[in-house]
């Protein structure tokens, strides 16, 4: 199975998928099928797309096994469950409650909260082990501006002109 034969309807549908799809993998698979139909070898197509020959063989085989009117289904990835989120929604209120406070008041040697410091705080105070990336995502979900210094060293007093005249 080094080449495939597509009818005109299938070619048009694959070209529509290439122009309209937002899924890069689906577009790659559509290109592979079109290039195989144009007479390209599996090796050439695999090299053009930067994938293994086995991937091109698998795409062509899947197309022949499942080809019907729904090409998007034939070219799409199979659904995968993945690892469930463990920290989303759990750490948000905890971070929201602590981010406004000064870390020095809780015994930390830092003037601002950082992701690793929040990770350590969540582990020690609440027994929740999370990654710094989870903390950063939680802060983004909460729309918190953080890592801003809370001191006003360079700001002038509102009455500085009066003080200067005397």
CATH architecture of the largest domain: Orthogonal Bundle
Q: Give the uncertain stretches in residue-range form.
A: none
Beta-strand content estimate: under 5%
Kindly provide the name of the CATH class of the largest domain: Mainly Alpha
The number of helical runs is 9
Average pLDDT over all residues: 84
Distance between the termini: 94 Å
Outline the structure in words.
This protein has 166 residues and is mostly helical. It has helices spanning 8-20, 24-37, 42-49, 53-66, 71-75, 92-98, 115-126, 132-142, 160-165. It has two domains: 8-75, Orthogonal Bundle (Arc Repressor Mutant, subunit A), CATH 1.10.10; 92-142, no CATH class. The protein contains nine helices and no strands. The chain starts with 7 loop residues before the first helix and ends with a helix.
Q: Helices, strands, pairings?
A:
Elements: H1 8-20, H2 24-37, H3 42-49, H4 53-66, H5 71-75, H6 92-98, H7 115-126, H8 132-142, H9 160-165
Helix pairs in contact: 1-2, 2-3, 3-4, 7-8
Summarize the structure.
This protein is an all-alpha fold and 166 residues long. Helices cover 54% and strands 0% of the residues.
């Amino acid at each position: 199975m080094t080449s495939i034969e597509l009818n005109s309807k299938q070619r048009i549908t694959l070209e529509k998928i290439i122009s309209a799809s937002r899924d890069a993998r689906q577009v790659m698979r559509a290109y592979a099928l079109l290039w195989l139909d144009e007479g390209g070898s599996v090796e050439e197509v695999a090299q053009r797309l930067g994938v293994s020959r086995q991937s091109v063989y698998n795409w062509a085989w899947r197309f022949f096994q499942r080809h019907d009117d729904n090409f998007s289904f034939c070219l799409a990835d199979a659904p995968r469950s993945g690892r469930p989120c463990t920290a989303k929604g759990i750490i948000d209120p905890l971070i929201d409650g602590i981010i406004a406070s000064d870390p020095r008041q809780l015994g930390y040697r830092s003037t601002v909260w950082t992701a690793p410091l929040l990770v350590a705080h969540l582990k020690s105070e609440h027994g929740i082990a999370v990654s710094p990336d989870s903390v950063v995502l939680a802060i983004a979900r909460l729309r918190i501006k953080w890592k801003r210094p809370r001191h006003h060293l360079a700001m002038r007093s509102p009455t500085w002109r009066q003080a200067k005249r005397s």
